[in-house]
Hints:
The mean pLDDT is 76. The chain is built from 3 helices and no strands. The termini are far apart. The chain is mostly helical.
Amino acid sequence: MVVIKGDTLLEEWSYTMLSALFFTLAYYSYVSLKRRFDTLYGSRELFLKRIIHGMVYIIFLVLIQEAIRVRTANVVEAQVLEIIALIILSAVGVAIFIDIFLSVVWFLKTRR
């Protein structure tokens, strides 16, 4: 029989709630970004520019993560802060990466 302390259960619950909150915030920020991409780069002539702009966003997310890592180098709870930042940035980054992939596939299909 596994015995879970009350504090451990509370920690697990708080990590679950924080990750759900961060994923929700990241999803809605991606939806906002996607709407902006669709309005700016919706036409066929600007589709390649949309792909490049998405790659720049991915690079920007990597730079944000590195800045958080450097800034929290001397903090005791740095590992927890980095995990929270990775959850947020990866939720946005994966969605943008999928958008880039689908944009490349659509761009290659329409060029034939």
